[in-house]
Amino acid sequence: MTAFRLARNELRRITAGRLPRLAVIALVLVPLLYGSLYLFANHDPYSRLSTIPAALVMQDQGAPDQENAGEKVAANLAKSGAFQWHRVDARDADAGVRSGEYSFSMTIPSDFTAALTSSGEFKPRQGLITVSTNDANNYLVGTIADKVVGEVRKSVAAEVGTTAADKFLVGFNTIFTKTQDAANGATQLADGAAQARDGAAQLSAGQRKLADGAVQLAAGTKELNTGLNTLRDKTKDLPAGTAKLADGAAQVAAGDAQIAATGQKVADVANRFVGDLDKLNGDIATRLRAAGFTEDQVQQVMTALGQARQPIDDANGKVQAVSAQLNKLADGAKQVADGAQQLATQTPALANGISQAATGAGKLTDGAAQLSAGEQTAVDGTTKLADGTAKLADGSAQLRDGLNQGLGQIPHTDDPTRDATARTIGDPVAINTVGDVRAGSYGGGLAPFFLGLATWIGAFVLFLLLKPLSNRALAAGHSPLRVAVGGWLPAAGLGLAQVVLLFTVVTTVVGINAHNWIAALAFLAFASLTFTAILHALNSFFGAVGKFLGLVLLILQLISSGGTFPWQTLPDVLYPLHSVLPMGYVVDGMRHLLYGGSVSTVWKDLLVLAAYLVGGLAVSTVAAARQRVWTPARLKPELVL
């Protein structure tokens, strides 16, 4: 009887009846339920972080003339989609974290903005963000929250650093501008100093001329002093003379006034006489008309009378003219008298002024002499000034050249360059993560581990129903190898069915991407053959104890395979387990095939699994050989599972 026939008989035995067939189907589905459902539940948990409630306590009061940094952090958190943020006060946040209403809380203090800007006031202090967690809610949430807060801290630090660097660079631009202004001013100063040097030379020459003029002024003031003294002596009797002149003029004015008054009286009498003649002419004309004279006769008489009085009218005109001239003479004489009186009144002051002028001229003479001496001193000073301005011109030229040279060494950028430089200073290091291969999601990262575990568990549960060795074949004296392989093949076939179903659902329904799905499926199928061979060997060699040993191996492989954290993080005592047990090689091979890694590494994993496969069949063969001899322990075992 061949091994395949023994396997077929065993499969026929376990599928005889409806319930046994359902049991076989259930055994095939066990890896699917374990692996696919776990990966489905944990396929991409990070994409649903927005459903985790978190409390945000915003207390930041901002700072004058500054953007509220706390509000900006809150806006960025809401925009990021990480966690479901609820803005509450501190009391509600604390109570919510304790009760589990919120997974954790983040508190931004009232002085957060002020703290971030404190360095600019040379009173530096850190902005403190408080994160309150409760591991009773979930340990990993706290870990993720710490990562989020770390990103917030990094972002805020980069922004603050960028702002500070921008102000720093703006300061350099300001220094550049001011230095440029200073250089321009130094240029103007150099030009002005050169002009001052030339002007000082001209001033020195002019000052020498002025000294000569001062000497001449001293001589002239001396002559002026002599002339004023002579004038003072000549005019000392002037007040008395002008007083006498005033008296004479007053007498003349009085006489002229009397003559003018007499002439006015004569003029008045003459006017009255002429008026009487006019009246008489009228009476004569009236009487002649009354006496019967004709109008022509009357006019002839009146003409004769007019000619007769013409001398009288002429004399009256002369009298009036003389009277007017006499009045003018009287007025002029009075004005002369008044002027003479004013002259007599002011002549003492004039004489006194001449005396004072003579005295002042003496002082002016002395001052002019002092001025001459001072001008000589000024000549010496302007000579020194000329020398100093020459040195000033040389120094200002050096200042101009030095500022222009230093101007080129001061950083000066345009706005885009300054912004880019500020961002680089604020956040100098960028992370460029280049992955040779990527899992794609959290579930993708766990898939190699849980596919391997599901395959082991699937192989483990098969022997709850399958018999590892056929007693009939052993009793018939068949070859131990044939019996061993015939007992392994049913488990191997059902294991392959488990793997195909598991891999199909995981890659299509759950959505775990496989870079090389054919090779990955073949590798996982080979791992299933290996695991069934190992568990078949344990059950064949140790009997009921083998099931327990299979469970122990499962636990040992859970902790040593490095399916979650890198195996290098294991305690040193577990390193040998990782190197010896097959699960770590399954995880390694599946990672490379699912993610697109190096295929050369997979060959090493296959060799290890092949060694376990051959070893498992060898142990099963030894167990079959041993069980050809019946013992009391086999007839009546102490433990039956």
Automatic annotation (TrEMBL):
GO molecular function: ABC-type transporter activity
Subcellular location: Membrane
SUPFAM superfamilies registered for this protein in UniProt: Methyl-accepting chemotaxis protein (MCP) signaling domain (SSF58104)
Record-level GO cellular component terms: membrane
Residues annotated as domain ABC-2 type transporter transmembrane: 415-619
Origin: domain of life: Bacteria
Membrane-protein topology: Multi-pass membrane protein
First-listed, main subcellular location of the protein, grouped into a coarse class: membrane
Cross-referenced Pfam families: ABC2_membrane_3
Transmembrane feature ranges: 21-41, 446-466, 487-511, 517-536, 548-567, 606-625
Keywords, sorted A to Z: Membrane, Transmembrane, Transmembrane helix
Protein name per Swiss-Prot or TrEMBL: Putative membrane protein
Organism: Actinocrispum wychmicini
